[in-house]
Design brief:
mainly beta, four-stranded antiparallel beta sheet, disordered N terminus
Length: 106
């Protein structure tokens, strides 16, 4: 799957994969208790809180995203925040992303 890797300064490694109609986020971090995932763009923003277990967190969610294409480049803002137990932000990273399905025939 295609993906975008994020790394905060001395911080966690976060990888987000976007496939038409699905958002998959995988995160490895030292410290922190949970991850807030926010997707904003067209329509209301979506947000999930994902607990960290043994320094790892994952999210696999169906989303009603408009597909990206050269003729209609629909983009979304994806923000990943590493949170402490009290909900304070330890690290944050963001990226503009597009949802696209790529297939090879033949």
């Amino acid at each position: 799957r295609p993906g975008v890797a994020f790394a905060g300064v001395g911080g966690p490694l976060m990888q987000a994969q976007v496939v038409l109609e699905r958002l998959v986020v995988e995160l490895e971090a030292e410290g922190g208790a949970q991850v807030r995932v926010r997707l904003a763009g067209h329509g209301p923003a979506l947000m999930w809180i994902v607990p960290l277990a043994n320094g790892r967190a994952g999210l696999d969610e169906a989303v009603a995203a408009r597909p990206w294409s050269p003729d209609a480049p629909h983009l979304y803002d994806l923000t990943l925040e590493l949170l402490d137990e009290a909900g304070g932000v330890l690290d944050q990273i963001g990226q503009r992303i597009g949802f696209r399905d790529i297939a090879v025939d033949g």
